[in-house]
Input
Amino acid sequence: MTNPTPYPTAPIILPLPLERAPAPVEGCAGCTELASVRDRARAVGDLTTVTDCNVYLRRHPVGHQ
Output
């Protein structure tokens, strides 16, 4: 008797866009600060803060970008 296959297809592997960090808007002090915090967090391995900063940069006021 054969073992049943637990899943009918192979799992889907989704890419993590870690290399595509959002760029700060030039001349914006808020963006510059977020980018600075992100760089310091990355330097110490705090990927949670890196991700948070990326989210805040992407959610920056719509009219600003």
Q: What stands out?
A: Residues 29-64 form one domain. The helical segments are 29-43, 47-58. The chain has a mean pLDDT of 85. The longest helix spans residues 29-43.
